[in-house]
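Reply to dn_fold:

You asked what the input looked like. This is it:
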Amino acid sequence: MSTDRTTWRKPAFIKNPTLRYGLYAALAIYVVVTLATLPIDWERVSDGMRRAQRIFNGAFPPNFERSGLLIDGFLESLKIAILATVGGIALSVPLAFMAARNISIRPIYFLGRGIIIVARSFHPVIVAIIFVKAVGFGPFAGALTLVVYSIGFVAKLLAERIEEIDFGQVEAMRSVGAGFLSTLVYAVMPQIMPRLVGLGIYQLDSNLRASAVVGIVGAGGIGATLANAFGRYDYDFALAITMVIVGVILVSEAVSGFIRKRIA
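and this is what came back:
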């Protein structure tokens, strides 16, 4: 009777057990040392837990009495998201062509990539603070912030899609004497259009979520309404705003997912 084992075992992440357990030990030591050296004031943490309990106690039940203020804030966020998405995509398309290695000359390629890298370098909250300081409080600062945010995401992914296109169509256009713009319009755009539409829908959904965040630092929208509610200690109204934001994002996620699936 055979004694061979037939049970499959998942292979170890690192085959050498000495190296594997050594890495585990080093990681554990790093976590312990990090926690021990971080300047954490545990007394303040304890006070913070009590304040958090008071916030939650004051938040229930949620207060929807000022629904008009809530709807106005949300509609402003929606306008910011739509305007930023349109503006961001309009700027992302030429930037994506500039940042595609296979169709741009080297200096233009580096310039396009540099602009995209700068747009992706900062969190939207940091960009919102800069624009709030530059143009003042309100939705205009929020729209400018999300335009930059859209460029960092859409232009990067669109440039990568351009670099993956079937270049035979481009060469065919060039062989019959087509100009640069004609080649882009008739040989490149048809190949990237499905990705561009999908990215636009996703970015609209993403901008709607981000508009709630940047509004907290004064860039308008439902985020500003939420920040004002916290500032007045209206925790029940803040909870109502939060619930509406979550509901809208869920609906937006479902709609954008359905549309992306239909055009895939």
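The radius of gyration is 25 Å.
Hope that clears it up.
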